[in-house]
């Protein structure tokens, strides 16, 4: 878990423009991992927050399919905030980064592409545990 907020990347998802509407396709090497799980967040009440965890091994890409939301990233030392509001742009989150999602617009839909199936043991859900884990890893180096 030696990743930092500097490792977060915005990736462009190919967009095919057409007078009838646009289409974006995720295939082959659009994202840098084999997707094993897809889920999406929607009907998020005003003022609600999502996320509030880090993954030990799993990587994810977040995409605002509709509307917008902000993602706050933390690595125990630095913070970074990214607004997602384009359906042809994804935010690649490597393992070991804390994330919180907030400020969802009305009708926002957040698509998540994950490198692994759900595994509760891969989640760190308490921020203090996360900071301690990051510090332990730094000491081992």
UniProtKB/TrEMBL annotation:
CDD domains documented for this protein: cupin_QdtA-like
SUPFAM superfamilies, alphabetized: RmlC-like cupins
Domain Sugar 3,4-ketoisomerase QdtA cupin: 7-133
Pfam family for this entry, one: FdtA
Taxonomy, superkingdom: Bacteria
InterPro entries xref list: QdtA_cupin_dom (IPR008894), RmlC-like_jellyroll (IPR014710), RmlC_Cupin_sf (IPR011051)
Protein name as annotated: Sugar 3,4-ketoisomerase QdtA cupin domain-containing protein
Top-level taxonomy: Bacteria, Pseudomonadati, Bacteroidota, Flavobacteriia, Flavobacteriales
